[in-house]
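Q: For a teaching session next week I want to show students how multiple molecules come together into a single three-dimensional assembly. I've collected the sequence lines for a complex. Could you give me the predicted structure tokens for the whole thing so I can convert them for display?
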Amino acid sequence: MKLNIDGLLVYFPYDYIYPEQYSYMLELKRTLDAKGHGVLEMPSGTGKTISLLSLIVAYQKAYPLEVTKLVYCSRTVPEIEKVVEELRKLMDYYTKQTGAKNDFLALALSSRKNLCIHPEVSSLRFGKEVDGKCHSLTASYIRAQHHSNPSQPVCQFYEEFDSVGRQVPISPGIYNLDDLKDLGRRKGWCPYFLARYAILHANIVVYSYHYLLDPKIADVVSKELAKKSVVVFDEAHNIDNVCIDSMSVNITRRTLDRCQTNVETLQNTISKIKETDAAKLREEYRRLVEGLKEANVARETDIYLSNPVLPDEILQEAVPGSIRTAEHFVGFMKRFLEYLKARLRIHHVVQESAPQFLKDIFEKVCIDRKPLRFCAERLRSLLRTLEIADIADFSAITLISHFATLVSTYSKGFTIIIEPFEDKTPTIANPVLHFSCMDPSIAIKPVFGRFQSVIITSGTLSPLDIYPRILDFRPVTVASFTMTLARTCLCPLIVGRGNDQVAMTSKFETREDFAVIRNYGNLLLEMSAVVPDGIVAFFTSYIYMENIVASWYEQGILENIQRNKLIFIETQDAAETSMALEKYQEACENGRGAILLSVARGKVSEGIDFVHHFGRAVIMFGVPYVYTQSRILKARLEYLREQFQIRENDFLTFDAMRHAAQCVGRVIRGKTDYGLMIFADKVSKLFGKKHANFSLSFNCYFSPQRYARADKRGKLPRWIQEHLTDGSLNLTIDETVQLSKHFLRQMAQPFRQEDQLGLSLLTLEQLQSEDMLQKIAQIAHQA
Amino acid sequence: MASLSEEVLLVVKRVRQRKQDGTLYLMAERIAWGPEGKDRFSVSHLYADIRCQKISPDGKAKIQLQLVLHSGESTTFHFANESTALKDRDAIKELLQQLLPKFKKKANKELEEKNRMLQEDPVLFQLYKDLVVSQVISAEEFWANRMSLNSVEHSLANNKQQEVGISAAFLADIRPQTDGCNGLRYNLTSDIIESIFRTYPTVKQKYAENVPHNMTEKEFWTRFFQSHYFHRDRINTGQQDIFSECAKQDEKGQKSMVNQGVKNPMVDLLSLEDKTLDEGYGTAKVPTTSNPSNKSLRENSNSAIIKRFNHHSAMVLAAGLRRADAPSDQTSETSSTDGNSRDSDFFQPPLKKVKLQEAIEYDDLQGETVRKTIALNLKKSDRYSHGPTPLQSQHYTTSQDIMNSISIIQQEMRTYKPRLTQVMSSSAASSAITALSPGGVLMQGGGQQIINQLVPTDVQGELKHLYTAAGELLRHFWSCFPVSTPFLEEKVVKMKSNLERFQLTKLRPFQEKIQRQYLSTNLTGHLEEMLQAAYNKFQAWQTRRMMRKT
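A: Of course. Below is the structure for the complete assembly, covering every listed component.
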């Protein structure tokens, strides 16, 4: 249908539309008009992606000079591919409606592992291996060697692309990962470098967060993207952690050992090259003196990981004299390495800031701040000069150099924690140096600064005001849309007690309690008898799940559950878990029904959807608080309080709630789907008593009556909160079973389109009526 | 009625049938009943027709006897003589019990079945009349083929019965009981044993290897109950245990399953993340802790439980599917051996595409629900587009050829220019049009509807019968080839003569009849062709046989 969104003609590739999609597009249009940033929350399964794409594509077509590019960032590879497929659908619709040939170029970009078509390289299993092998076939000096010595293997796909691929831009169209590979095979071009080249002139680019947020990669891939781009971060509820991860470094004793080997190899190579080709080293030295770091514009294939600091922090000066010659630099690295080794040889935990660390290193081994800052840059230059083929081997020394550069560049927002052993095993020495970023705004700052519109969107962003605070940006629009429903297809229930009235809680003190575990087990058992097809259960941590499974096994609860459904359990091994997941789906598919025991914050909870019969109920055992004893977390909380005035417990609750909402949100996709959402925790007691810092009662987030005005403080997204009534709070297991039965029986009734029409589903005519527009505006304003 | 001359064995008075009083007679060959005061029998059954007798249970008010006939009908007699009713009924029952078996031999089940088939299937009945009654072939020959067909169908229907799946909790159903003196008793049923064997083929293998040569069955199961199958938290310790080997095999199987990876890319956690952080970056825990050496025993046993539950569930699921898949797998295997299986890949969209499409679909936003189509899974697309082709002709056109020729024709049509100087004269054109219009010279003898109108319906019906009969005979005939056994040789000769007899007794009279009615069209031409083809085949076969003999 063709929509009129605030004066903009939008092609929407469906015959019907959800009211919230309309509101969403309206809000999005305003953000683009204002050339500002936006935070938009809309439940999963309401067609966020297609709304985003429809509107932005229409905007691009209407104002080609205002918005030149859409950069769509998503989290996982399947998500990326889904976005591209939705885009294809939209573009097909455009062609069908307008009759004009599609002149848009849209493509997905992924790592070499997903795009490589070289028969040897692509057969490798791990991304790192693929990258390394690719580098060893395509680096500029390898190719130069190939000229003089044809027996030196190179990648024929890259050669072909390099010689002809750049002249002709790839024809307009939608290219998913597989399409790129097909194209590459047909033309004999390397799809990865083709895609990387094509994103510069593509209208739409779909790739993962890292290509924009991780400075090491962003500098290589996304450096030249136009300023007039719209950047969308989908599934952005976890964006702060991605930012933090990309700037943090951990150094173990093993890293240092491997680094030691790296340094030795470098030394040997240098002395060898001195005998044979001393001119090369002299040339490098001359270049560094002149400060022409990138004089011979680094070829795209040479850079493995770029500078770990953000572009605006990189010094535009020449490399200092003390590390200019190769030997001096290696010596410098040796000294630095020895210092780190000494620091790891401690018996108590040390926490210090970056300036403290720099002071200490200056006092102990006389290493200045300035050469440290050039470490990453200098190492890169050296590796290139030495023509190191297998760059993946040098990951350890690269890591150390990145640490050096980071620690000397940023004085704020980072902390250094050295732990001599793990908390659980105080007898086993396993020293780790955590250099941890505490401020997610550091990594994302250049993105906000550079692009005219950045949209942060997800199904769970509540409370909305926290993201602008922790990411430090000023949005022009902040909105949350709820799911309009013709029938209440989601049923959140909070189970607080067992039938024996013993409170259920995953609170640390009582969670090993026999009665609690038994009640959890009984809940699952009862539900397995009532709910058809699939049930997904989430635990707060892996170790906790292991313990519970073991005691359920001893109590015979698992055996009883097996009478109703098959049991599959997430393990720490991703391959094994994938297997279990597939079997789980198979069991749901063939009618046996199954239960999947999984972990909140795990890979399953983040990346797998349990739509329709794959998840008719989801049970959260406990509230998924992050492990609060971790020093890194404590440091971060402290930083949040000092810098952003966010109270610790506010953040912890926010963090737990977004993960809980993520977990339960996995089961609902669309309005024809339905699912139970069971939170098994006597939550109001969880706070307050012993944990003084958890002073907020959980109930205040939930109970709509008492806190209707303080709705903003609700930490669960509105679309779940809305369906929480007083009657669904603090239930016993029996009551839960009764309510579930009732709900499932209702949901099992046929649900036709007519039931939805006019309420949660609109035709074009309905959308055009004045009444409806008012109604939609009214709903949207409640947010 | 000739009943008077029959020998009457027993007479019972005051027997009601259909609320009418009357008298029951048991005679030498039949049982009969006549209403009171009338001189004829309104009910009369030959003993041979009776399948069985039923009596009302003792203690019921009405004392009755029911006769069930082979035809399915039944007749009920009510013994109304209050004082002697029971005695009367028992007397009849005793006598019938003696009489019925004597007549039973003829009324066997097979006859019944045949009867039923003939009654249910009018076409078959007609065929029976045409062939057997007119003595073209014998009844045995007719049925020999039919019954076997039927029984095959029967067994097929039986096979289709659904397999019963395996309960996931079959091990839990073995409730151990204490026997009072420090021991446990496990109750195994054959169902449970079957479940175990189906779920764990390795156990079955071990059982076959060891029982009863190396140990008794009891010993085997005792060890089983001590094994990891039953105690999932046990980490196998004893090396001499036969099940530790099983555990290793299971583990290996599980590993290989894991290594194979998953088919559905949407659940593949390994390829979920696009760009995982390099080792050493990020705030996540450093994965050095997964060292098994510093794990406690408890943690080890916990992870063993989890692994075993996953394995168990996977095995149960696989066992349920294994049986169902077995036959279809076989067919796919046999048909894929001809090297043409690639075709099917071509027609089926890859799983990934399907899953992606599924994931982005909103069925309620879509207007009219697009009907989901099932992809045609062709093993041989050529065969599909050409239909069955005679085996001899090697030069059939491939779809590629057809496409080419179509495109050539299209091209030619595109460039086609009428050469107006060389068109035919208008008179020639109009004569051609008349010749091609209905009733024209060139349009004679075509069109089925004409035959429909020309031939009277009774002749049509007769022709149909002839076709079915000829078809049946020809089927018999052709089924003899290749003639590999002496029995078939004999049969083929006989069938040939049957065909000839059919032509003589059935076809010829029909042809004459048609001629008499002056129907010009040659209705029986095709029938004769079919017969001729059979004769030719027979001839060829016979000459070849002669040659081999000489």
